[in-house]
Specification:
Elements (H helix, E strand, L loop, with lengths): L2 H35 L13 H18 L3 H20 L6 H4 L2 H16 L6 H7 L5
Helix pairs in contact: 1-2, 1-5, 2-3, 3-5
Membrane topology: Multi-pass membrane protein
Family: Belongs to the DoxX family.
Protein name: DoxX family protein
Length: about 140
């Protein structure tokens, strides 16, 4: 890659971080809407106070907050932990290989959210908008 392309990539990297955060959060949120709202229809909806039900609430609410970029770092950190927990509780016991135990998405979400917890939400977020607003006091 030429130095000019690297400079362009560096210039757009923060915006691309925001886009990755939004897309990952919206797809993640769909897991919560399925478990909690039944959209799309869930074959066996979990009880609200079960592990699956609590995970669904985290996916729905946390996914929405992350898509908006509000409290992004702590939310992303919690969701990363949820996905690590989900992998070891629900997927790893089935098989050692993630592609065979269905846990590849959980691993990917875990590390994408961990990255967002450290990198921040990017400029296209409510967190960034709140940081730019001058204090009134």
């Amino acid at each position: 890659m030429s130095p000019t392309l690297y400079a362009a990539a560096d210039r757009y990297a923060p915006r691309v971080l925001s886009v990755v955060r939004i897309v990952a959060a919206l797809i993640f949120m769909a897991h919560g809407t399925q478990k909690i709202l039944g959209v799309p229809a869930h074959p066996n909806p979990p009880a609200l106070m079960s592990l699956s039900g609590i995970a669904g609430l985290m996916e729905l609410v946390g996914g929405a907050l992350l898509a908006l970029g509000l409290y992004s770092r702590p939310v992303a950190f919690l969701l990363s932990g949820e996905m690590a927990f989900a992998y070891f509780i629900a997927h790893a016991p089935r098989n050692v290989f993630p592609v065979l135990n269905g846990g590849d998405a959980a691993i990917l979400y875990c590390f994408v959210f961990l990255y967002i917890a450290f990198a921040g939400p990017g400029p296209l977020s409510l967190d960034a908008m709140r940081a730019r607003r001058p204090s009134r006091f």
